[in-house]
Structure formats: structure tokens, C-alpha cells
Amino acid sequence: MSSSAGPELDELYKDLILDHYRRPRNHRVVADPKVVGEGYNPLCGDEIAVEAHFEGGVLADVGFQGHGCSLSQASGSMMTEAVKGKTVEEARALIADFTRMMTDPDSPPAEDLGDLEAFVGVAKYPVRVKCATLAWHALADLLDRHEQAQES
Ligand code: ZN
Predict the structure, then answer these.
(1) pTM of structure
(2) Mean pLDDT along residues 57-83
(3) Which residues constitute the domain of residue 116?
(4) What is the DSSP pairing of strand 58-67 with strand 35-41?
């Protein structure tokens, strides 16, 4: 995303985030067998639980539940859309890219993050960054648990 993005683009991205907040995608329980990852943001009271069903190392189905501010819930919705169908490695790369965009906005993302770039404006507000990254922390927790289960 270029730094020349004007206020119109900012408004568009805000609409996208609000749309995901009002009509969250994949806001449901995932069929068994599933792995669950959780995240909690005490600053805002946001909670996210992410569930996934794996098939051969791929996140075949992903859903989330939770409550909290619009940013946290919209981020959960957009995260599930972004990682569904991806491999564990691809999902981990996306976690790293998204986290870097939110915590180091001056360095361009390694890849085009598509709709996820709607959150780049939030990077200016460190307190809200925790809202936007919560779902991604929950996903990282889920991937850790999945890999632990594979090893045991
Ligand atoms: Zn929040």
C-alpha cells in the first residue's frame, strides 16, 4: 500500500472493517476434529477463540468466536478468510507479515496483504494494535497446539 493513500481510501478501509464487524465471516463452530487457539486482550476486554480443522497440513476449515471491540472482531473475520485453505507454513508467514505491518508500518509488507491492509491505519494507535492483532495471536496459539499434537 502506498503512503499516498488519501482520506478517501482511509474511509473505504474503515467501511471494510465495519462490514466485517457487522457481518462477521466464519463466525461459527468448526466441525470435529478441531484445534482451538485463544487470545485475550486485557486492555480492551477483547476475546477471540479460533477453531480449525486440518486436512493434510492445510487449514481446511477455520472459524472464530468471541466478543469485544469492532477492530478485534473484524480482524477475526478477515483473518479466517485470509488463512482458510492455506498450509501451516503459509499461515505462519501471514501472521508474521500482518504483525510486521501493524508494529513496523514503515517497512512495506513482504507480500500484498489484500484486504488485510485495511488495518494499516490502526498501526498509528499502539493501544488499538493489540485489538487488530489479537485474532492473529489466537491463530498462532492454534498452530502451536496443532504442531504439538502432531509431535505427540
Ligand atoms: Zn479492542
Answers:
(1) 0.90
(2) 97
(3) 3-151
(4) unpaired
